[in-house]
Amino acid sequence: MSKKLILAALALSLCGPLHAADEGAAKKPARKPSTPAAYGPEDMLARTVFQSLLADLALQRGDTELGVSAWADLARRTRDPAVISRAVEVAATAKQYDLALELTRMWLQIEPDSTRARQTESALLVLANRIDDLVPQLAKLLEQDKANLPANLMHLNRVLGGKSDKKAVQKLVDQLAAPYPEIPEAHFAMGQAAANADDPMRAQSEFARALQLRPGWETAALARAQMLARQSPASAVDSLREFLTTYPDAREVRLTLARLLISERRFDEARIEFDRLLKDRPDDPEIIYPVAVLALQQGDTASGRALLEKLLDSSFPDKSTVHYFLGQIDEEEKKPDAALAHFRLVTAGDQYVAARARAAQILLQQGKPEEARELLHATKGGSASEQARLAIAEAQLLREAGRKDDGYAVLTAALAKHPDDPELLYETALTAERQNQPEVMEKHLRHLLKLKPDHAHALNALGYSLADRNIRLDEAHDLVTRAVALAPEDPFIMDSLGWVQFRQGKLPEALKTLEKAYAIKADPEIAAHLGEVLWTLGRKEDAARLLNEAAKKNPDNDVLAAALKKFQP
């Protein structure tokens, strides 16, 4: 718990009318405040009121020292619990924890059975980082409040959460919870403390014991699975499934299992779990949304659309995301007007800029380039990253409209404003290459790699550029090899490696690499590279057959057309 939160808790627990009764005082007659002999009761009351007003006025004017001092003096003279509580609050807010503790202990002398005073003392010890002193105080609180013992045990880690020494906190929680071995919350608290202290085996053991004492406890089952997931997500999946075998209606456990399966990219299994949840709660937006996304992931567009449309009539808060997905579906189904309508309804969130970019593309395809550009200009990027995305979208729009120079100018202007934006650097680099400026491309890519050394696509682009220009081939090989290590199944990076190998004269290696790339993705440019390697190896008929087949599927590809012209018998 942060100091701010603890102070807020103190303020809530200590504020109220000046003479409000404390729970400790409610159990027995309140003690009459002692009054110095020099003053009568009326004089004392007047003096108290005057000094409290003076103290609060000082605090309002920013004179913390005077305000704290005045309230502390008033607390000592009156020995009134309500006055003391206010003085403690003021001292704690001013971070004068020793004074606040002194006053709280005076409060406990006056009202030794006050739970609120005891809680205040514990909170102050946390703030003062006096962990060792907490044990007897918290132990007494736990002992006094038997009716709320399970809940108080569950709150131990939250109270101590702001402490940096997690091992010390674990030791403290162990001491406090150990006297209650048959209470499942005690073992949960010890497990939680162990987890925070990076003691996974102990954490798992305590969570398991909590489940033994309360077999159907979802909170403990989830905590145990969370610990298992740190080392083995598969083990966490097994743990949750085992729990659901006995307790099939445990909603939170099943929901967690489904989300974990998604994170492990086990989409089919996740869909089964979500479908079960959806059957039980068909109108729950929290269930409908992931099921809809999973359906789209699996190519079940009809189910995905139906569920997304259902979300529009629900309490689901993020309608913009729903419209974005529906726009994507309509665009894929060649329904540009419907897609455009959905994209226009995306008004906030992570998909806002992407939706506006897609809407602009549709307008361009409809022969409305100026309207498309106006739409992008009317889109106000809230962050530097969004502004960069908008510039990239506008540049792409201009390029597709045949205005390549204008598109490049938009990118260079944006890059001047945001010189360290990774996506902008990458896009400007590739555009510079298209503008026959390889040196500019190389400069931008090297800057990007300084910012993000493991940017696979930047490594690939720079390596391929060097190989394509047939220069610094050893460096090109190193760059692309690093890219392959980062994205081993990317066919385009494989293609770059094959091209580098070809340039190095390693024809058998190049052939093997390019054949693998083409098997994954029958891309026309990969076909062109593979055709050239086959031709160079003397397999001219194989090369011609490959190139002709690729050309039939991609009649407008310039790279493929150039290869066919080069190797025409």
β-sheet strand percentage? under 5%
Architecture per CATH nomenclature, i.e. the level-2 architecture of the domain at 1-128: Alpha Horseshoe
- Report the sheet with the most strands, covering strand number, pairing sense and barrel closure: none
- The first-level CATH class of the domain at 1-128 is given as Mainly Alpha
Number of helices: 33
Could you report the average pLDDT, rounded to the nearest whole number?
A: 85
Distance between the termini: 77 Å
Helix content: over 70%
Low-confidence stretches: 1-40
Structural class: mainly alpha
Rg, alpha carbons: 35 Å
Remind me, CATH topology of the domain at 1-128?
A: Serine Threonine Protein Phosphatase 5, Tetratricopeptide repeat
